[in-house]
Request: fold
Amino acid sequence: MEAGESPKEAIRRELQEEIEFSPKKLSLVKTYDWPEKTEYIFHTIAEIDVSTTPLHEGQRLSWFSPTAIKSMRLAFHDNQILDDFLNSRK
Reply:
């Protein structure tokens, strides 16, 4: 987040800068207070074609099924965050 920016403003800015996506609605799902940082998890509906979406940061965009996500070994606390999110949607 930049100085004076709220978490919601930060994620809107980052989505616009990185993939030129402006969500109509963003919902805060959960806040995690880890010893090293605080993470704010948001949810939105994104009906985008990843093959034509501009990518200004990162290597590639892709969609993953919940089953595929659960089999991935991700960095930081991302496995726990995604597991919590997927379990909350059942």
